[in-house]
């Protein structure tokens, strides 16, 4: 592909928060290699806030996945069709699926974009072979022993990009409004800026990924006794978990209920340390350069550890997060602070 022919480029990354955040390093690389190109991105509504305001993108297309729809599946599919129609009207020269592993849904979107040339990683599973026609050419399959940031960026080698070009930064633009509100939260809660420890209650309810509330309660008590300032964050759907935690503690610790990713990111930006289970919140903390202590389940630490920030990842032999005791987490906190 001739570089001068790629005037309009569409990128597709339609998965989750952490995945999309790890992809933001690609945007800077592409902008450097194609300074005059029109670069657009397609994401699902769950992750729009992550890329909103990214300085290396010209446009962002958003669609709602059927499984995330607040209405019904038909309405979600109709919305997706309308978004794809707008994309086709753009007449892109190149469309790239930035998911390192083959995804039928992302491949279908790349094909439906109507771009002159369509790229993605080849299907490896037999059940996916029938979808090979979605692409005109295949991207190199990334090495398994790389971080997701490196794996995603390595997809661009077909465009003349090398791993040496990888940005050390993940980009998450927040904005003045959420930052002002976050400052007010810290002031009203008597929490010191850039010193207080954020304990994030994860909404993931899988048996091996949900750190028990009794563990969170004990960790908070250990940190409090050691003289640290600490507070909890959670999303509205996990409010009951926080209420149950308060009953265990017999008190209501400082807490922030996130109503948006921007609001959550703003609060994290003023934290001194982040503690949580592996997932999207961890990557938001890393993108804001907040040191992390992460309780890992069966997820690969090599592939998913916090990017370009000081961190300690704890993982039990049985890959069950509840095999990791609060005392061990507190010891990791002491090592980082």
Describe the structure.
The chain has helices at 17-33, 48-51, 73-90, 104-112, 148-154, 176-188, 213-225, 239-249, 261-269, 280-287, 301-304, 326-336; strands at residues 8-12, 38-44, 59-63, 94-97, 117-120, 137-138, 197-200, 230-235, 255-258, 273-277, 292-296, 311-315. With 337 residues, the protein is an alpha/beta fold. The protein has two domains: 3-165, Rossmann fold (3-Layer(aba) Sandwich); 177-336, Rossmann fold (3-Layer(aba) Sandwich). A six-stranded parallel β-sheet has the order 3-2-1-4-5-6, sandwiched between helices. Strands 9-8-7-10-11-12 form a six-stranded parallel β-sheet, with helices on both faces. α4 links the parallel β4 (94-97) and β5. α1 (17-33) crosses α10 (280-287), α6 packs across α9 and α7 crosses α8.
Element layout with pairings:
Blueprint: E1 8-12, H1 17-33, E2 38-44, H2 48-51, E3 59-63, H3 73-90, E4 94-97, H4 104-112, E5 117-120, E6 137-138, H5 148-154, H6 176-188, E7 197-200, H7 213-225, E8 230-235, H8 239-249, E9 255-258, H9 261-269, E10 273-277, H10 280-287, E11 292-296, H11 301-304, E12 311-315, H12 326-336
């Amino acid at each position: 592909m001739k570089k001068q022919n790629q005037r309009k480029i569409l990128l597709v990354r339609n998965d989750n928060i952490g995945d999309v955040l790890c992809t933001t390093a690609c945007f800077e690389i592409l902008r450097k290699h194609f300074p005059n190109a029109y670069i657009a991105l397609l994401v699902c509504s769950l992750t729009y806030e992550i890329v909103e305001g990214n300085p290396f993108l010209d446009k962002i297309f958003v669609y709602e996945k059927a499984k995330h729809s607040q209405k019904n599946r038909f309405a979600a599919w109709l919305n997706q069709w309308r978004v794809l129609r707008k994309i086709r009207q753009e007449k892109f020269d190149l469309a790239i699926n930035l998911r390192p592993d083959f995804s039928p849904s992302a491949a279908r979107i790349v094909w439906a974009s109507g771009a002159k040339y369509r790229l993605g990683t080849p299907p490896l599973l037999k059940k996916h072979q029938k979808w090979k026609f979605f692409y005109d050419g295949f991207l190199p399959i990334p090495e398994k022993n790389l971080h997701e940031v490196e794996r995603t960026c390595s997809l661009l080698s077909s465009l003349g990009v090398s791993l040496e070009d990888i940005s050390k930064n993940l980009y998450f633009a927040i904005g003045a409004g959420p930052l002002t509100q976050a400052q007010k939260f810290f002031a009203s809660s008597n929490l010191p800026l850039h010193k207080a420890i954020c304990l994030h209650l994860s909404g993931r309810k899988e048996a091996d990924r949900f750190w028990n509330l009794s563990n969170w309660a004990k960790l908070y008590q250990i940190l409090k006794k050691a003289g640290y300032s600490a507070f909890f964050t959670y999303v509205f759907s996990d409010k009951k978990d926080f209420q149950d935690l308060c009953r265990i503690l017999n008190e209501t610790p400082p807490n922030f209920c996130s109503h948006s990713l921007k609001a959550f990111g703003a609060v994290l930006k003023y934290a001194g340390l982040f503690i949580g289970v592996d997932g999207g919140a961890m990557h938001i903390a890393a993108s804001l350069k907040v040191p992390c202590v992460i309780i890992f389940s069966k997820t690969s630490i090599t592939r998913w550890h916090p990017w370009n920030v000081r961190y300690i990842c704890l993982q039990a032999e049985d890959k069950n997060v509840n095999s990791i005791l609060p005392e061990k987490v507190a010891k990791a906190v002491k090592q980082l602070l």
